[in-house]
Structure formats: C-alpha cells, structure tokens
Amino acid sequence: MEGTAKRTEGLSLFAAIAFAVGNMVGAGVFVLSGLLVDTAGPSAILSFLICGVIVTFSGLSYAALASIYPEDGGGYLYAKRMLGSYPGFLAGWAMYISVSIATAFVLLGFGIYLNLLAGTDYDPRFAGVIGLIALTALNLRGLSEAGRAEVALVITKVAILCALIAGGILALSPGAFVPFFPAGAGGMLKGVTMVFFAYIGFQVVAMMGGEVKSSSRTVPLATLASILLVACIYTGVTIALVAARLPAYGSTSVFDAAVVLFGSVGGSIVALGALFSTLSSANANMIGASRITLEMASEKQIPGRFATLKNDQPVNSILFGALLTLLLIIVGNLDFVVNLTNVTTLAAMALVNASAVILVRREERVPPEKQYFRMPFGIVIPVLGAGSCVAMLGTLSPLTIGLGLGLLLFGSVFYLLEDTPSGERTAREIRVLLNRPR
Predict the structure, then answer these.
(1) Of 180, 166, 201, which Cα lies nearest the Cα of 37?
(2) pLDDT at 241
(3) If you classify domain 13-433 with CATH, what class do you get?
C-alpha cells in the first residue's frame, strides 16, 4: 500500500501515531472512563472493546482512502473526491466543528484535574478558558516542533497509564467483576455510544496527511495502529478502575483509583499526567482543524478570507474554532459536549464510509499504476462502518441531533459565500503553501 507520491520531510510513522494517540488518550481516558464505569459497571470493558471494533470499520475506510489521497484534509478530501463538492464540504465542516467541540470537553477535563493536583475547588471552566487562550496563541505562532513535542507528551502520559494498568492488574480479584452487568446489557450498549467519543481522534492523522512522510503508506498504518493501541489502553484503565473498587465512579475516578492503588503520590502523578494528556489532545485537535480549513480554502470550498494566513496558519479559522470551544466550555455540561461531538463526527464518518463504498465499487477511478490499501471483504467493511454511524446517531436525543445538524447546515453559509479579491489571493497563497498547482 505504498503510494506514488512520498514526502521526504515531515512527521514519521511514530510521530503520526503519537498525534492520533495523543488526541484519543486525553480527557476521554481521565474523565470519560469513570463516567462509563458508573453507567455500565465492569461491562464497561466490553463497551470499549465493542466500540473499538465498530470504529475499526471506519478506520479501514479512512486507511483505504488515505492511501490514494495522502494530502491534508482527511475525510473532507475523500468525500469531495468520491461524493462531490457539497457532500465533501459537509464532511469537512463536520470534522472541523467536531474537533472544536471536542476541545471543549478536553479542556474541561484539564480544569478538573488541575483542581485535583493543586487541591483546590475552583470551577474547572476557569482553567479550561486559560488553557484555550494559551493553545490558541501557540497555534497562531505556527506548527514548528509540534511533532516532537507531541511525541514527548504522549510517551509521558502512556507510561503513567501503563503503570496504573499494571497496579490494577496486580490488585485484581475475581469478585471485582461481580455483578458484571449491574445495569443489564442496556447499560453496556449505552456505554458503547458514550465511548465512541474516545476513539474519534484517529482522524487527526488523515487530516494532517500532507505533513506526514510517505503518507500513502504511513497514514493507513498510523490510523489502524493508533485505534488498536488506544483500545488496549482504555480497556486496561477500565480494569484498573474496577480493581480499585471505588465506592462511587465519576469524572475523577482515574485519580481516585491511583490514590487507592499507589497512595497520594500516585494520585498526584496521574493528575499531572492528565494535565499533559488533555493539553496535548487539545493541541492535536486545534492543529487538525487548521489543516482541514487550509485544504477547504485551497479548493475554494470556503472563502479564502476564513483561512487568512499568518505564520502559515489560518488565523480566522483558528479564532472561530476557539470561539465555539469557549462557548461550550462556558456551558460546562460534559454529557452535552460529548453527545454534540458525536453527532457531528458520526455525520462526517458516515460520508467517509460512503466514499469508501464508491471506491470499492469503482476502482477504475484509481490510476492503474497506483498501489493502495485495498479494502478487505469488498464493500462489507464500509457498509458496516456507515451503518454503525447511523445506528449510533439513533441512540442520541432528538434535541442533540437537531443542534448538531443545525451547526452543519449553518456552515453552508460559508459554502455559498462569494469570495473577495483578498480571499482569492489567500487561496492562492494556501495552494503554494500546500504545494498544489494554481
């Protein structure tokens, strides 16, 4: 599955996996895992594993398409090439909105764990806003050194989580899993929908395809490897939570479990790891969103002025995403933020899976000399991916679905706007930046 176009500079396979893992192992593991155990009990382990299998269907669709279209943009680019201009726009806008919403959840997690580390009781929204301002300023300065910084952050937090997992396994007793389904099979299935949020970060590799070395080969490998690695981490952390036998489970349970297993020092180390984790995840989200808008502006899907460049970064796009994130941090409702993220992400992933169906059915669209990742079992995998996205959408409340789809339709205003002469100049600058023909 090696493409014809390769980059000799950019992110390595290891760095690409680090960006995806950094995005997925964020507030999801430190905040969401405890909420999941509260919902499903020990069967939360099955929730994570089943959701990981479901997400892998879509991951295989991304892998096949990424091996053919290795540029920045990810699902947006795939949907545009396979489904047409407007479906492509909807996929891109949905991805941009979803990562901006997810950043709000991640930064609320940052505020929760900053309180735990400092022993304070401030509203976590304050720290979330401060983190947002700092990361926005960082992203406005450019992308340099981001890959190396992300690798260091990911290694640190994965090492901390592996220590927690090891401690949990050593403390495990058979009675910890009884009852396994305290809320019945329904609680476990509800958990599958809840944890979908935890896996969506695998898309960040595809969004940044143009920044990755040998991207036709590296992006598919990084996508699938990151999903597998994160499934193992989440399952292990859930086992550790169950092994700790906490009296109650919630958003701070990973910290509480670390205190039970390792004492107050262990709790402080986990809280520090959570701070690194949430910041790296939020940073990866913001970088991924900026890559999407650069790609969309270069192909005149959004006005160039929305992606005005400064330090090779789309300034207005970053500020708009930060504003949406700020509003959701102020709302401060974790469940609402997670579900709204799921709506927009599921819509984008359904379009990507539909694109993969077309790819399989019309392989003649692929140049005969191009080698690429071929979808196993034909259209079965992308059909299962699309079907699972629609099924999970059906589990969410009508109000949340309506708000999410409303955000997507609102974005159509950008699709319909005529560009200005300065915006057209920006679009040309972006094409030069992305090494695309004018």
Answers:
(1) 180
(2) 94
(3) mainly alpha
